[in-house]
Amino acid sequence: MRAVRRLPPAAALAATLLAPAAALAQNPGTSVAPAPRSGQGEVIAPTPRIENPVAVFNGLDKITGRITEFDVPIEKTVAFGALKVTPHVCYTRPPTEQPNTTSYVDVDELSLKNEQRRIFSGWMFASSPGLSSVEHPIYDVWLIDCKGGARPEAPQGPTLGE
């Protein structure tokens, strides 16, 4: 009787996933990936981003339960309660691309003694407010949009009669 050797779970999974690739490699007429055109790899242009002059935030006052939407011009500071919000950049994508609104923001807290303390400095993502919002005992602040940027024009198709 032949002894059966058991593979650890990770090795069994790897063997299962790699078996089709090994079978393709043994058949010389089969390729795994399409061959690049004209001997060079295909170059994909990066998605253009639109710089906007205004970042739009939501702020939650946990005491009153009110959510306030406020606009902040780039490199300007706006107070929301005891917080000072300063966006440095605000990017969006063209309407033809998947939405991705981001902003680099500094948030400072002003104490009762008029001392300023940085409580957040980093990127905020409108698509994931829980990932990068400012959580404070009294206030929450998160990015919702950017506005005022020049939108690229959509390509024009043929008009009627042409």
Please provide the count of β strands. 9
Structural class: mainly beta
Please bin the fraction of helical residues: 10-25%
Task: Tell me the fraction of residues in β-strands, as a range.
Answer: 35-45%
Question: If helices are DSSP runs of H or I spanning 4 or more residues, what is the number of helices?
Answer: 2
Query: Mean pLDDT across all residues, rounded?
Result: 79
Order of helices and strands: HEEEEEEEHEE
Poorly predicted parts: 20-32
- Output the radius of gyration: 26 Å
Shape: elongated
Can you give a write-up of this model?
The chain has 162 residues and is mostly beta strands. The protein contains 2 helices and 9 strands, in the order αβββββββαββ. The chain has helices at residues 9-26, 129-132; strands at residues 50-51, 54-61, 66-73, 78-80, 83-92, 102-110, 116-125, 134-135, 139-147. Strands 1, 4, 5, 6 and 7 form a 5-stranded antiparallel beta sheet that branches. Strands 3-2-9-8 form a 4-stranded antiparallel beta sheet. A hairpin with a 2-residue loop joins strand 4 and strand 5. It is elongated. The model is unreliable at 20-32 (pLDDT under 50).
Can you tag this structure with a few keywords?
mainly beta, 2 helices, 5-stranded antiparallel sheet, 162 residues
